[in-house]
Each structure stands twice: as C-alpha cells, then as structure tokens.
Amino acid sequence: MRIAPSSIQEVNDRVDAVAVIGEYVRLEKRSGRFWGCCPFHQEKTPSFAVDPDRKMYYCFGCHQGGNVIKFIMEMDKASFPEAVELLAKKAGIELAYEGSGDYEREKNTHKDDLYVLYDRLAGSFHYLLMEKPEYSRAKQYILERGVTEEMLGRFRLGYAPADRSWLFRFLSKKGYSPELLAMSGLFFPDHPQSAFFHDRLMFPIADRQGRTVAFGGRLLSGDGPKYINSRESDVYKKGHTLFAIDLAMNEIRRTKSAYIAEGYMDVIALHQAGISNAVAPLGTAFTDDQARLLKRWADKICLVFDSDGAGQTAAVKAILTGRKNGLDCSVAVPGRMIPEDGGAGAPLKDPADILKQFGHKTLQKSVKYSINDFEYLVNRARSLYDTNGPEGKARAVALLFPYAAALDSEVSREACLAETADIFGVERQAVFADYRRDRQNGRPARPSGAAGGEERERPLRMNDELYLLTAVLVNQRTYPKLRSSLSIEELEDPGAKELFIALEEWFRNRSPGEEESSQAMPPDLLARINGEALRNFVIEQGVKGAFSSNPEALIQDGIRKIKIKRLERRQGEIVMELRKQKTDRGGLNAPPPASLPVSSEDLLTEKVHIDAELLRLRGAARSGPQ
C-alpha cells in the first residue's frame, strides 16, 4: 500500500519545520528565518536556513535544500514512506493508505513492533532489578559501584535473569508471536528460545528520539565477555548511535559541547557528577557517523577515556575522527586531579573508578580539567619516543601528521606543523617537507571546507522568466492567474518551461483547494521538477524569502515584463523583415517579387497593434499594480 497524497500534504502542512529540523541542527532566529550550521557539510559559519512559513530548508554553502520530509530522509537515511510516517507520529496524524502489498509499509510496521517490544522489555528488566528481592544481588552490585537509585531510574538499568528460557516464556505470555521474537535479536538464531542476555545487568540503548533500539549487558557471574551489545537490526546501527544521547541532548545543545566516555558505567558516573552532556560509543571506536551526529549540536568534544594504553590509543583515534568532522577536541585525564593522599592502591583509570572511591565531587573536578588535543598528542609522542635523538624526534613529529591533515584550515595546519617543529627542536622546513612526503605516500590532506561526496551542480542563474515561475511555484495559489495570462509558448528559458510544466501537472492532479491550503510547497509539486539543480534553485529562492512580500503584485509585474520583452522581440523582427523586403525590392518603387511570406501591409498592421500593446503595458507598469 502507499500513503495517500492527501495524508502526505497534511503532514507537510501541519509539521513544524523549525521544531523538527531543530532536533538535528542548532537553530537561531534571524531576519524572519532560522539559521544554523549545515548538517550536510562541515562549516563554522551558519549558512543553513529554515523558512518556517514555507516549511523549507536550504544551505547557501552546499546548495542542499527541500522540505521537511526530504530533510528526514537525508538525516535518518529513511525512505519517503518512513519519513512521512515518522513526521506523522510527531504531529499526531493518522495516515490514510491506498493500494496494498507495499514492502516499505510492512518494514515500518516491523520497526514499530520492535520499538514497542524493546521499550516494554526495558521497563520489565528495570522492574526486576528494583523490585524483586531474588535479584537483589544485581542491584547491590551497581549500588556498590557508587551509582545512586536516581541514576538507576534515569538510565532505566535492569536485570536479565540467569534462566536462558525465562525471557521467551515471559514474552510469549505477553502475547508476542514466535515470528516477532525470532526477528527481535533477543534470542540465538539456532536456539530461538534461548535468550542472548542472561544473568546480566542491562543497559537500555535509546536513539536520539528516546526510543529503545537495543541493549547492552554486563556479565555478573560465570564465563563470557564482560560486556555484550545487541546485534545490529533495522532500528539499531551501533556505529550511528551513542549511549545516552537521548539524555544528553538538551545539555549538548545548551553548552554546544559533549563529553565522550568509553563505556556505560563511565557515562552514568559523569551524569551523576552533574556532567549530563556525556555519551559513549557502543562497543566500537568513536566513528565518523557519531561525530557527525554530535556536530549537529556541538562545536567541541572532550574525551574522557581510560588512562591505560588502550584508552590512550582510543583517544588518539577519537581526536582524529572529531577533527576530521569539524569538532574542536580536548582530553581529560581523570586520574590527574585526584589528591596524592586520596588513598592507596593502583592508579585509577576511569570515571567509574573515581566515582566509586572518591565520590561525584572529585570526579567532577578531575574531569573538568582538560588539555587541548594538540598538547595531548605532543605528550603522547614524548611518552612513546625518545626525543633526544634524531630517530625519536622524527617519529614523534610524524605522530602529529594525521592530526595536521585532519584540521579544516590550511592556516591551522601550517601553524600546527610549525609549532610541532619548534617543540621538538626541528627545522620547520624539514617538518613541512616530511609532512608533504607523508601525505603523498598516504591519503592527501583533506581540503579546507570540503563537503564530501561528489561536487554538486552549480546553481542556476536568475532571469525574468525563471524569477516569475519560481515566484509562482513558491506561491502556488497564484498559478491560476499565471495560467490565464501566459502560455508556455511565450517562454524561452528551459528551466522556466520545466517549472511551468510541473505547475500545470500538479494543478490538474491536485486535490480541491490544495493550492490554497498552505504556504508550504507541496511535496508532489516539488517531485515533479526534473533535475536536482533546478529543484534546489527553486528551494533556495523560496528560503531567501524573495517572494514573500505581496506575491500577487510580483507575479503580475513578472507577467507584464515577459509580455513586454516578447512583444519587443517581435517588434524588432518586424522592423528587420520590413528592411529586408525594402532591400530585396531595390527600393520602394521597385516591383514586388512574385510572392512574399507576409505582406508589408500585414507586417505594418501587426506592428501598429504591438506598438499599442507595448504602450499599454508600459503605462500599466508605471502606474503600478492594477
């Protein structure tokens, strides 16, 4: 089945573009529109605009644009039906469908079932942990780690019983079918009644909309990996998701920054210490997709990784990932700020350890102290290599090359290399030469401001015809006026003709009253424009708001200009034809040829009519709208 066009239009009309796009991009109001840094390419100066009236977005840097439905498709990698259904849920709209057998609809129904199942199961696991005495061992473990009951509730921590068959029996009694349970990822494929998670402390994983999409589990007894995560599914891609992003979102937006920890317990410890913009990757290194997700709201990140060798290696990789995606980076080394007399024993490695032994105030103090990423890498190089000798210096300097390549400015890159040379006592030109050689042998340095992907088509140039048709398209209720005043034969510009055809097709197939239903551009109308460059051109002009003031007068004036230019063109053709006929006859007294395509008398009569019409149109232009 497919979503009814009337439902698509209702979604487009009722959705709040600023609210929806604002969940992904930090927006600020300026001059009637909302501006932010584009989520489709890296930039530090906002060039991404949202028009709340037309419900359109457009980036003046990379020229991406469209309506809210297209935005959701781009950001969530969703199909058109998925995007419409997501927006319908946000707006509380019940969609109508046409036809049958649509695979996408079935797929989305499956996703909805998974969201509901995971969310209810998270609640059930949490109930077992908090209320069932027979599972007090699990609760006691987490409380002994210094985590408060408030945090247990905020993160909805739970417990999965040790009995592998318990979960299948429990969910079957709740009415879930064996087919859905087999697709849920909660059970082993070869043993469909044996739970993947058992005798584990459970950490629900939510997406940025707060929907439970997966689980993480910490082993409490027996053999096996310490932590395991749900397998990837239709609703969960671990490289695209961050633990606690739903809880950290508001603080990330407010502070324009995020703390990146290594694991679940570290994030919970940081939140308990009042650092509520903390998140963590999910069993992987910090990925480009996770960095781009944070870049939508944050300008900088602070890495809070373990102080052991593995943690430091992960920190170096995360710095490069962050910088490559336009995020300023710093690194906190939690153990540094703990008082020397704070206690005996081995050095503390992570926030969870600090919380357990010293409490949330010490953790807060230690994590708030950080150094910038360049200083961290310099210290890392010094700890790895003996920089007193030439070979050690060369290796230490080379450790900074990937960092320099990840910077998004040639000026920053040159300054970084120069400072690296000075710090390690090496000639700057030698460092620059080694850097260039390193880049030639490896991956070239990333161009400043590169948007990624193939270069997009350049935007089209404005002319009177394109201006008029664009104005009509973004104010589609005026199309009947254009339709009765101008024909496609009077247009020359190919883009203007394309827009005229799109408007005519939409007009003939629209629902009654649709052209007056909203200022928003109907998705069906935009979809009829062939060519991404032309479609983005229209969106750009609409978002600029060039046609928002008295569009009726603009369009009337545009029709008049096109008619005047067309008549002037014909007027010139007639004059040239008359001159040619005069030359061909050898003068006015020469005998006429046997036949003429159009007689001089007919041409003169036509010219008189054109002169009169031009006089009328120019007079109307001087007197203003009629």
Plain-language structure description:
The structure is a single chain. With 626 residues, the chain is of the alpha+beta class. Among the domains are: 2-103, Alpha-Beta Complex (DNA Primase, Chain A); 104-236, DNA primase, catalytic core, N-terminal domain (DNA primase DNAg catalytic core, N-terminal domain, Alpha-Beta Complex), CATH 3.90.980.10; 556-623. A 5-stranded antiparallel β-sheet has the order 2-3-4-5-6. Strand 11 and strand 12 form a beta hairpin. The chain is flat. The model is unreliable at 340-346, 443-459 and 592-596 (pLDDT under 50).
SSE topology sketch:
Blueprint: E1 2-3, H1 5-14, H2 17-21, E2 28-30, E3 33-36, E4 48-51, E5 56-59, E6 65-67, H3 68-76, H4 80-91, E7 97-98, H5 103-131, H6 136-144, H7 149-154, E8 158-160, H8 166-173, H9 178-183, E9 187-188, E10 191-195, E11 200-206, E12 212-219, E13 227-229, H10 245-255, E14 257-261, H11 264-272, E15 278-279, H12 288-295, E16 300-304, H13 309-324, E17 328-332, H14 351-358, H15 360-368, E18 370-372, H16 373-384, H17 390-399, H18 401-406, H19 410-423, H20 428-441, H21 464-474, H22 479-485, H23 494-509, H24 523-527, H25 532-544, H26 551-584, H27 600-623
Parallel strand pairs: 14-15, 14-16, 16-17
Antiparallel strand pairs: 1-7, 2-3, 3-4, 4-5, 5-6, 8-11, 9-10, 11-12, 12-13, 17-18
